[in-house]
């Protein structure tokens, strides 16, 4: 290898190092997402089971229901902000489908202008929020959440939360 080739190779390696140090192609694993989404799944399961069993959670204006929706939207807002701060370089290929979620009449969630730049973690969090919106709408609509709504909408919401958990676990380091 000539000195010129060595210099070029070293320059390429140095440039690559600086680029990868400054920009994340795939977002790093963050235990906060893992723990918070698992807690959200547990809280949602508890809420849905109580509503299905005829507990006070069936009623839209019960303190348990109000607390569930308030805490769920709060958790999702905080996680969305955290994901935005660590956004990966590569946008999620399904970002455009979020527009379809937002267009549904039952949706309370507004997409930010940069939604087409979301990484897959942000996409999953907004998808969960849209499913919470659907459950919330059904609950608010007639003031009572019936068993079929719990099963259909609650099942879809839980599946969405599980999908988000799986997305966040993609970069979890293996234990030694």
Would you kindly provide a written description of the structure presented here, covering whatever features stand out?
It contains 6 helices and no strands. The chain has 176 residues and is mainly alpha-helical. The relative contact order is 0.15. Mean pLDDT is 85; it is low at 5-24. Helix content is 66%, strand content 0%.
Question: What key attributes describe this structure?
Answer:
globular, 176 residues, 6 helices, mainly alpha, single chain
H/E series: HHHHHH
Q: If you compute it from the alpha carbons, what radius of gyration comes out, rounded to the nearest whole angstrom? A: 21 Å
> How many individual helices?
6
Distance between the termini: 39 Å
Biggest sheet, in brief? none
Topology:
Elements: H1 3-22, H2 31-52, H3 63-85, H4 98-103, H5 120-142, H6 147-169
Give a summary of the structure in a few sentences.
With 176 residues, the chain is mostly helical. The chain has helices at residues 3-22, 31-52, 63-85, 98-103, 120-142, 147-169.
